[in-house]
Design brief:
three-stranded antiparallel beta sheet, mainly alpha, elongated
């Protein structure tokens, strides 16, 4: 995409016919439309879009640049190492929600809610210690139904 000239190029090399902002979705996005005369006979159409013509809706330039930078950072090994810690934390939160009902506080007042959180964390730790002493293994990461289906087909 060439933001300055307001031109986007599709995988087949065709350029855009329309580039306009759209404010109807709660945030500003750019509607980038390609010509249906270019898209209909295109050999790459099946891999590109199911519509009569290709339509892109990126966010504003600054948001788009931030997303591209974040995606580039995600490809780094340091990010993968850091994300491993987050996956463990997400698993702990999921366990707390499923077993200790952490979505809502049972008490009113910051002091009581804080005490509830501390006691819940202690209970989760004790439960993990008991499971570890009993030799129970930690469950593997949940796989979505779609991922299970694709692994069966392969």
């Amino acid at each position: 995409m060439d933001w300055d000239r307001k031109i986007a190029t599709c995988p087949a090399g065709h350029t855009t016919t329309s580039w306009s902002p759209n404010h109807n979705v709660g945030r500003t996005v750019i509607r980038i439309r390609f010509s249906s005369a270019d898209c209909k006979p295109c050999a790459l159409k099946e891999n590109c879009t199911r519509c009569p013509r290709r339509l892109l809706t990126p966010r504003r330039r600054e948001e788009h640049a931030a997303l591209e930078a974040a995606r580039a950072r995600e490809a780094d090994d340091a990010f993968a190492e850091q994300y491993r810690w987050r996956a463990g934390i997400e698993g702990t939160l999921s366990l707390g929600v499923r077993t200790m009902h952490l979505r809502r506080a049972r008490y009113l007042g910051l002091t009581k809610v804080h005490l509830h959180h501390v006691l819940t964390a202690a209970a989760l730790n004790i439960r993990r210690i008991v499971d570890w002493l009993a030799g129970e293994t930690i469950a593997s990461t949940r796989r979505s139904p779609f991922a299970r289906l694709t692994s069966q087909a392969a």
